[in-house]
């Protein structure tokens, strides 16, 4: 190959690389539109089982919840609100039962919230060390779910508080039980609480991308 041909080929490769980087930048700028997606064979495959509208609403609910909780508690508690398919999980610590109820009522009034699962503990705030350990533990649980080849890991949302793992998602009964089993196998997990919206095998078949693992059957439940 001549020097001129080599230079032309290198230029084409640089141009292609620049185009790829530009595309990545555009995707980053539009992150909410591709949340829950995975790259397969160069194509984006959406694996989040919620509708795009529900994903956007969940983000809005969580943002609004921060302000509502601050209005109720100020700096007196440590509360996290996690929304999945418009179901809100409240975790953390509050000073009193009255505060626990007040937080639940405030968040329940947010537009589009369907239901509240109130797991707030009446106790002093957890330490920064405890919260750091929770972040690490959640990462381990997520990694273990990914390693479980009979599960679609992205169907599960993992929330960890004081060593207790809360699992959320649109899953079948089989997936719920298997996901809880996998989470319990992780060292440091004190307890697993299932906060799922259970769907049937038929519903899963309509939601599942073609490459996703097979699921089971079920009704609706929230349990441990």
Characterization of this structure:
By secondary structure, the chain is α/β, with parallel strands linked by helices. The protein has three domains: 1-33; 52-122, Histidine-containing Protein, Chain: A (2-Layer Sandwich), CATH 3.30.1340; 128-207, 2-Layer Sandwich (Histidine-containing Protein, Chain: A), CATH 3.30.1340.30. It contains seven helices and nine strands. The protein has helices at residues 3-29, 31-34, 52-73, 97-108, 128-147, 173-184, 201-207; strands at residues 37-40, 43-46, 78-84, 87-94, 115-118, 121-122, 157-161, 164-171, 191-198. The strands form three sheets. Strands 3, 4, 5 and 6 form a four-stranded mixed β-sheet that branches. Strand 3 and strand 4 (87-94) form a beta hairpin. The longest helix has 27 residues, at 3-29. The model is unreliable at 2-45 and 215-222 (pLDDT under 50).
Top CATH class of the largest domain? Alpha Beta
The level of helicity is 40-55%
How large is the share of residues in beta strands?
A: 15-25%
- The average pLDDT value, as a whole number, equals 82
CA-based gyration radius: 21 Å
Distance between the termini: 67 Å
**Number of folding domains?**
3
> How many strands?
9
Question: Might you state the CATH topology name of the largest domain?
Answer: Histidine-containing Protein, Chain: A
**Silhouette:** globular
**Sheet of most strands:** 4 strands, mixed
Count of alpha/pi helices? 7
CATH architecture of the largest domain: 2-Layer Sandwich
pLDDT < 50 stretches: 2-45, 215-222
The sequence of SSEs as H and E is HHEEHEEHEEHEEHEH
Structural class, judged by helices and strands? alpha/beta
